[in-house]
Amino acid sequence: MVDLLSRQPMRAGELAQAAGLSPQAMSRHLRVLRSSELIEESHDGVDARVRLYVLRSAPMSELKAWLEQTEAMWSAQLLSFKAHAERQA
To answer: Are residues 51 and 61 in the same domain?
Structure first.
């Protein structure tokens, strides 16, 4: 769902079809993503009854920052381990 929504806002039916899920399964996925605040609902501007699901950028930016910090930490750890192993050899 996140990958699909990263490309463009979509309706639930479009998401279900693209993911090969039933409407009920899609509803459960959307409920979890909304409760985790990864996505939000908006309206298409033409018909207020039509709900579009949009990926929120803030949580994704926070995740990206965390991943970058974690990668930097592990890179430093692995370089230290490599240096230690080479000294022992």
So the answer is: no
Dihedrals φ, ψ of 56, to 5°?
-85, 135
Q: What is the CATH number of the domain that holds 6?
A: 1.10.10.10
Q: Where are the alpha helices (DSSP H) in the chain?
A: 2-7, 12-19, 23-35, 57-88
Number of domains into which the chain is organized:
2
Q: State whether residue 38 is helix, strand or coil.
A: coil
Are 28 and 45 found together in one domain? yes
pTM above 0.70, yes or no: no
pLDDT in tens, 23-71: 999 999 999 999 999 999 988 777 778 899 999 989 888 889 999 999 9
Question: How many CB atoms within 10 Å of residue 4?
Answer: 15
61 in the same domain as 38: no
Count the neighbouring beta carbons within 10 Å of the beta carbon of residue 65. Answer: 10
pLDDT recorded at residue 81? 94
